[in-house]
Specification:
This protein has about 230 residues and is α+β, with helices and mostly antiparallel strands. It is built from 5 helices and 16 strands. The longest helix is centred in the first third of the chain and has 29 residues, at about 5-30.
Length: about 230
């Protein structure tokens, strides 16, 4: 019938476009997939976590009241850590997040306050950005927070720290000889490959003395953190 030829062409195009992608993803999955490791909780894991915090100057982090940074040249943050609020900037939007009382957060477009449904959507979007992007800045400092489990794991003949949160998201921290994180393998709902690894590099000594990373790489993709300021 006349429709068979166009159908074959369409199916051929679909196969041509999807098959290489599936094969490529399969290759990446095979190369990067890791089962969630097991290890020992308790004092040994806590000791390794403490060594990491000392290497990063955790006391300076606690004493830092303000952190400002730009993530991937897309979003800019002014986190008033001591006051529990953060200003989030992207495109033409600005949202003042109240991290303690979210209902008091406010959204702006070109400096004009936006209320109603649009305002609520912007606040929700900014909240999501903050929660996701802040991980790439200060996650190592949060290993002793409430409901966080720490496990000592042997990874590549070295000690590594598996951190598991209350939602069962897990992250395996790997270190250099000074116990500064150099990579993190991830097991969470948003990572398409279990155990996918991200680098943590270009650590910067900030004005307040704490160390913050300036670059991450996952597979072929880089994530830059710039314009870092602390007070």
């Amino acid at each position: 019938m006349a429709y068979k030829k166009p159908l074959k062409i369409i199916l051929g195009i679909v196969v041509f476009l999807t098959l290489p992608s599936l094969l490529f993803f399969g290759y990446l999955y095979y190369q990067n997939h890791q089962d969630l490791p097991t290890g020992q909780q308790g004092s040994a894991a806590d000791k390794l976590a403490t060594k990491m915090l000392m290497a990063l100057n955790y006391e300076a982090y606690v004493g830092t009241d303000y952190i400002e940074w730009t993530f991937k040249n897309k979003r800019h943050y002014k986190w008033h850590k001591a006051d529990k609020n953060c200003e989030v900037y992207w495109k033409d939007y600005k949202v003042k997040l109240n991290l303690e009382t979210p209902t008091e957060s406010k959204a702006y477009v070109h400096s004009f306050i936006i209320q109603g449904k649009l305002g609520a959507e912007l606040v929700e979007e900014a909240t999501t950005y903050f929660r996701e992007d802040i991980f790439w800045l200060v996650a190592p400092y949060q290993v002793f927070e409430k409901d966080v489990k720490r496990t000592l794991v042997t990874y590549g003949k070295k000690d590594a720290l598996l951190v598991t949160y209350s939602n069962n998201d897990s992250y395996l921290w790997q270190f250099n000889d000074k116990h500064v994180p150099v990579a993190c393998s991830m097991w969470n709902a948003k990572t398409p490959i279990d155990g996918l690894q991200a680098t943590w590099s270009n650590w910067q000594n900030t004005e307040t003395g704490m160390k913050l990373p300036q670059f991450h790489k996952i597979l072929f993709f880089g994530m830059e953190i710039s314009d870092v300021k602390t007070k």
